[in-house]
Design goal:
Length: 393
């Protein structure tokens, strides 16, 4: 196992040189052994200012565990910091300034799907925190060599609205969830007697020696915000709403070569995710034409910019509604400015400033935000949250 001697014991943290050397070994798709991946992760932990101590005894213990079992287990501290690094390295996320606030719920020891479902519900509850949204990750058991029993969460997010596809192809609800909704219905899900545009989907879990099972999320746990506009009273008649917390549940968390296929995580919403995408995209709720009609600006002339004007009003409504409902949410200008501060932190620590420009630039007013005129290294260093094959397609 490799070790960076120049990093040891400095209270101010590492020299930029040390960070650069460690990051070289954290690049993705390098054919490293598990021992080397674990070693690089422990080096990263060691140079982390304020991180937990990494002893020589621990390094040897990890090496022995891997030799014997082809596997090693993270200590609670390693897991916590591993998760934080995974967020810090998430190139698509504009909210990373707050990466050190991430807290971990350790659910690695669970034995049944029922327990896993109640942990998911407990995550929704703890993350929602009555509107004072907390960044959280719940880590379930890692994938072990030769085991097919790892828990998988089939949902894209723990909370999501059903999309019911009719025979003519039209979708009631969220079209992005049409395939998943069909899967749930085929497995016996009973939707509400009167189907609506905002029906919360059940959890679909498999693994732990059981076949796929559905679990309802108790209604009382799901905080939602009905959308109203700060000026236009008619806006509430559109009947729009959205849930408080986005909890992505289909990505694989990788730390030091260990893979956690079930590790739902959340931050809080940035308004444009809802106002400029979920409710606005033509392939989603497609609300702009109706909003423009109500505003009296709908036109068949694109150059009237009716879409752009409707977008701004929808985004004002989203931010205003979450604010007045006391649910934590950020606007895209403030978040972009915080990301620039995050970039400065990374640069001064000697770490690469990573990002995917096409993901970081907000979907409205891109050039008016602080991230527009910048460029980023798109490398997805380890630890990270990665895509994995869907559990059901
Ligand atoms: N964009 C996704 C959505 O609208 C959520 C992705 C994660 N977002 C976040 N703020 N952590 O539901």
């Amino acid at each position: 196992m490799s070790f960076c001697p120049q990093t040891a014991g400095s209270p101010q943290g590492p020299t930029p040189l040390a960070a650069a050397a460690v990051y070289q070994r954290l690049k993705p798709a390098r054919r490293l052994s598990l021992t080397d991946k674990a070693g690089a992760f422990l080096d990263l932990l060691e140079i982390e200012p304020g991180g937990p101590p990494v002893t020589q005894t621990r390094r040897e213990e990890v090496r022995r565990e891997i030799e014997r079992h082809g596997f090693y287990e993270h200590s609670p501290e390693e897991l916590l910091w591993g998760c934080r690094f995974a967020w810090r390295h998430s190139v698509r996320c504009i909210g990373r300034f707050f990466w050190k606030q991430l807290e971990v719920r350790d659910a690695r020891g669970l034995r049944s799907l029922e327990d896993a479902a109640s942990q998911c519900v407990a995550h929704v509850d703890a993350a929602t925190n009555a509107g004072a949204v907390r960044p959280l990750v719940t880590v379930f058991a890692p994938a072990r060599p030769r085991s097919k029993n790892t828990l998988r969460i089939w949902n894209y997010q723990l909370l999501r609205y059903a999309g019911y596809r009719a025979a003519d192809g039209a979708v009631l609800g969220d079209p992005a969830e049409a395939a998943f909704t069909e899967k749930c219905l085929a497995l016996g899900w009973k939707p509400p007697a009167e189907k609506g545009r905002f029906d919360v989907l059940p959890l679909l879990l498999s693994g732990l020696r059981q076949k796929a099972r559905l679990f309802e999320i108790p209604r009382g746990c799901v905080l939602e915000v009905p959308l109203v506009h700060p000026e236009w009273d008619w806006f509430k008649e559109l009947g729009l709403r959205w849930y408080a917390v986005p909890i992505v549940s289909n990505m694989l968390l990788e730390i030091g070569g260990i893979q956690y296929p079930a590790a739902p995580f959340n931050g809080w919403y940035m308004g444009t995710e809802i106002g400029a995408r979920n409710l606005a995209d033509i392939s989603r709720y497609d609300m702009l034409p109706e909003i423009a009609q109500r505003l009296g600006i709908f036109s068949n002339r694109e150059s009237s910019l009716w879409r752009d004007r409707a977008l701004v009003e929808l985004n004002r409504a989203v931010l205003h509604s979450y604010q007045t409902a006391g649910v934590r949410m950020a606007d895209h200008h403030t978040v972009a400015q915080a990301h620039v501060r995050f970039e400065e932190d990374e640069r001064s620590a000697g770490r690469p400033v990573t990002g995917r420009w096409d993901w970081l630039v907000p979907p409205i007013s891109g050039a008016a935000t602080a991230v527009w005129a910048r460029s980023y290294d798109p490398t997805e260093y380890s630890p990270n949250f990665r895509y994995q094959p869907s559990a059901y397609c």
